[in-house]
Amino acid sequence: MNGQYLSVKVHPNAGKNVLISLGPGRLEAWVKAKPVGGQANEAVEALLLRHLEVRVRLIKGGGGRFKVFRVLS
Asked: H-helix or E-strand containing 25?
C-alpha cells in the first residue's frame, strides 16, 4: 500500500469511533475527539492504524472535514 492515498470525510465530536469504506481509497470516519488542536486528525490516524493496520500522514485538509492521508506502511 506504499505510495497510496486515502480520502477521508471526518465527523468529529461523534458519540463513538467508527470507520466505514465508501469504495477503494474512500472512507468516512466518526471520531469522539473534538476538532481542536489537531485532536480529531490524530484520532483518525489512530482509527486507520487500528482498523486498516497502516500508518498514515495527513497531507491535505488539516482544518476541514475532507482529508487526504498518504499511506506510509
From this structure: none
